[in-house]
Amino acid sequence: MSTLLDLSASFKAYDVRGIVGETITEDSVRAVGAAFVDSLGLAGETVLVGGDMRPSSPAFARAFADGATRRGADVLFLDLISTDELYYASGTLDAAGVTFTASHNPAQYNGMKLTRPGAVPVSSDTGLDDVQARAEAYLEAGSIPAAAVRGRTGVRDILEEYSRFLRGQVDLSSSRPLKIVVDAGNGMAGLTTPAVLGDRLLEALPLDIVPLYFELDGTFPNHPANPLEPENLRDLKAAVVEHGADIGIAFDGDADRCFIIDERGEPVSPSAITAMIARREIARAQAAGEAEPAIIHNLITSRAVPELILEDGGRPVRTRVGHSFIKAVMAREGAVFGGEHSAHYYFRTFWNADTGMLAALHVLAALGEQDGPLSELGREYEPYFSSGEVNSKVADVQGSIERARAEFAQDGVVVDDLDGLTFTPGHGRWWFNLRPSNTEPYLRLNAEAEDQDTLEELVERVLAVIRD
After folding, report:
1. Helix (H) or strand (E) holding 393
2. Which domain holds residue 299?
3. What CDD domains does the database record attribute to this sequence (predicted)?
4. C-alpha dihedral (355, 357, 362, 363), degrees to nearest 10
């Protein structure tokens, strides 16, 4: 066993993520597999193990399985999977599991997303710290003691049943034919897109798919699989215009997030997509007899989101940023849907978990059920002007926040501290949020206004106050 004892460099708030061979190794992964079984009491139970297309994922999956079976759990290998395939398998099989992925991080990274049975996330608040402590103890001891009965291993391919399940959530039978460009970024959407949206495993949909970078390659030879960065959408934007496509869809490396481009090559904001899907899910819940279905949105989505939810007879529930918070509130409120500015979309029919592919199906259905272009449809859900996330490196984060409070918390401006500070004036023409980064000396500004001039003036004023 390795002598690496301190796993704090790779254990994060929501998952495990580190540099391969440095902060995450086969030995540490083996110890985590054993600790996961012990911490969750999984001896004699089935643990699902899969991974993405990164070169280290297969070896890490085997190492985790070795640790888990030594402690008496049975392991069912899912092999190559997107993260939302793990959630599907965990939900439908009611089993705990892990997938090896570092999502949108560069090629030298890998990590683990862990889930309890029913796709319930394991975070630092719900057991991840205990897994870390137990794994460190195994590493320090230099061995993993064998359970009375070693677990067995098996293999299951869930791609077709996952695809069929998602198809059953959204009816595209009445959609007009659509030409779509999909940028998989050499990530797992290169496997799941042909299965769900194409005809690789199921009957064809009215979709003409133009593929970009569908080859599974965890070295990311074309661009990083991080659509949140505008430069990584450049090829998709150009391809949408070149092919005269109706829509462009970009997925991140593990395909749990999707980003949407309209027919002009312009991005449609995740807030607009949240509102668009919320409208559909509210209507579906109401048709089933549910009064005021709850929709979750984080505090830096556009204010258009809660306005539309109320207009359509839903109940908006505001929460702080972060998927573990969203999933917990989804469960507590019995919400039908949740959306974040980072393009994570959560569905009650998907065990409150996030899935980029199901979100994409909803957007395709919304577009295909009407005759106008996506740019016009998107404008219905995006009436305000947004800054996006503006990061400032400051020497004294808290001091900068307090300067902003002193400058703006006056003349009827309401300030709340749900996540950082959010400033909202009584007249409602603008709002902004300041949130400190959890890991770096950054302040993150998100602002919105009724017109572009007001937005630019607001952002300039805030940055002048918070920057040293």
Report:
1. strand 385-393
2. 270-380
3. PMM_PGM (cd03089)
4. 110
Q: Residue 442 and residue 435: Cα distance in Å, rounded?
A: 8
Question: Residue 203: CB partners within 8 Å, gap ≥ 6?
Answer: none
Reference 279, options 324, 339, 327, 323; nearest CA is 339
Token pair for 207: 């979709």
Predicted confidence (pLDDT) per residue in 450-466, tens digit: 999 999 999 999 999 99
How far is the C-alpha of 213 from the C-alpha of 224, rounded, in Å?
11
Query: For residue 292, what is the DSSP state?
Result: S
Look at residue 10 and tell me if it is in a domain: no
Tens digits of residue pLDDT in 367-396: 999 999 999 999 999 999 999 889 999 989
In a domain, 11, yes or no: no
Q: Are residues 46 and 107 in the same domain?
A: yes
CB contact at 8 A, 60 and 69: no
CATH number of the domain that 207 lies in? Answer: 3.40.120.10
pLDDT at position 5 is: 59
- Tens-digit pLDDT profile for residues 241-290: 999 999 999 999 999 999 999 999 999 999 999 999 999 999 999 999 99
Active site residues: 103
Edge-to-edge strand ranges of the sheet holding 207-212: 207-212, 178-183, 247-251, 258-261, 267-268
Secondary structure letter of residue 341 according to DSSP:
T
Q: Is residue 6 part of a domain?
A: no
Helix (H, G, I), strand (E, B) or coil at 314: coil
The answer to whether residues 257 and 190 touch, using CB atoms and an 8 Å cutoff, is: no
In a domain, 1, yes or no: no
Residue 188 DSSP symbol: T
Q: At 261, list the tokens.
A: 């481009």
- DSSP strand E in 54-185: where? 74-80, 96-100, 109-116, 120-121, 153-155, 178-183
